Amino acid sequence: MSHDGGMDPQPRDAELYLRAGRSTFLRIKLDVLYNNISILKQRCSQQTDVIAVVKANAYGHGSVEISRYLESRGVGHFAVATPEEGAQLRQAGIQGHILVLGNAVEDDIATLMKYELTPTVAELKFLQAWHKAITKDSVSNNSVANDINSSNNSGERVRDRHQVVLKIDTGMSRNGCQPHDVPFLTEFCQTHGLTIHSVMTHFSQAWDNPYFTKQQLNTFMTLVEPFRASGVKVHVANSAAIIRGFGTQLDFIRPGICMYGLPPDPSQDTAELVESLGLRPVLSWQARPTLIKQLPQGRVVGYDNTYTTRSTETIATFSLGYADGYNRLLSDRGVVSVDEDGLQLPVVGRVSMDAITVLLDKPRSSSTTFNIITDDFASPNSVTKMAATLGTIPYEVTTSLASRLPRVFVSGGHFVAITKSLMKDGRL
Ligand SMILES: *Cc1c(COP(=O)(O)O)cnc(C)c1O
């Protein structure tokens, strides 16, 4: 049985369950990811490059395999949240530029340097510590050319390896330096031979507050104008800004959620707009029942006896639960769908740590694949609708998907790789 019917051939489900070693797995379609990036790039200038935001395990999709794939397709810049996330990518062989988005603090320096990660800087204090660490590193690693101010190749390399990204707070008041600090930070970099990779800011409400976003953008552009003239690159746009057209003519864009084919907020309108652009969810979540039984009327189901069968009913148990990222607030509210006929079936009873129970319309084969999360935008078990049901945003639904869930990566209708957190690298 194919996942999507004849048009888009997919590996046989039976093979994937076997590889996953579990009755459930996330299916990650890499071609869809690439197509989404192409769509986002079309909204930008020809020169605009992509920094693929792969923080939080690539929004739950699996950052190592996502980054390996993107690098093989020519993406050269990645952004993560923490130094450890960056180190994980380096250990997996990622060669490209890796930006760590969180405010850099002194304790991060050892990891940043060891794995050649670029910090996001907001404070002079950090730049001073960074410069000191680089100077030491240069002396110990570079016995021939140990002067970082020398203009020979070794000196250049050290400087580039230890470049920084400066972040300006233009109104969000979370990360970044205040506008009046910009001259001090840039001057320190210039006088101490630190390369500024780029200067950035971040929007707080790009999706639905064009007035405030424009103000942020204007503040930023005024501040960075002198540096742009000297070739320093600049970037501002997250997914919402890319779609709304803020900062899409600059040197980089930083797409996250829309690269994964999901809307930045859970409203119907937003989902429809994202879908109309051709963006598609990269992720779906499949499972088949581990037990199917017929129960008489009046039986209670699950913890706390919240559900009682109303007649003779067929109940299927799936071995996945809130520890896998299926939110417990979906107890007696969630829906799963069947590939074969598109039917939607209710989750009945409590979501347990490792199990959910679903009311079937009829006895079905235990080899039937059900979608716990579908890649169809409109279904109640899409990421978007689940986020709406839960009163949250699509970001939280996918980043909550546990690492113990096997992730199966497919491309061109072929199995590419699988990750299993409890096993060593399961890649072929
Ligand atoms: C997470 C993040 C992004 C990506 O945001 P999306 O809304 O997922 O596109 C871009 N820039 C920064 C600084 C971020 O922290």
Summarize the structure in words.
- With 428 residues, the chain is an alpha/beta fold.
- The chain has 14 helices and 20 strands.
- Strands 2-3-4-5-6-7-8-9 form an eight-stranded parallel beta barrel, surrounded by five helices. Strands 16-15-18-10-1-19-20 form a seven-stranded mixed beta sheet.
- It binds pyridoxal-5'-phosphate.
**Spatial order of the strands forming the largest sheet:** 2-3-4-5-6-7-8-9
Shape from CA axes? elongated
The residue ranges in which pLDDT falls below 50 over 5 or more consecutive positions are 1-7, 143-159
Q: How large is the share of residues in beta strands?
A: 15-25%
Bound compounds, each kind once, are:
pyridoxal-5'-phosphate
- Mean pLDDT level: 92
- Distance between the first and last residues' Cα: 23 Å
Tell how many strands the DSSP assignment holds.
20
Largest sheet: 8 strands, parallel, barrel
Number of helices: 14
- Helix content range of the residues, please? 25-40%
Radius of gyration: 24 Å
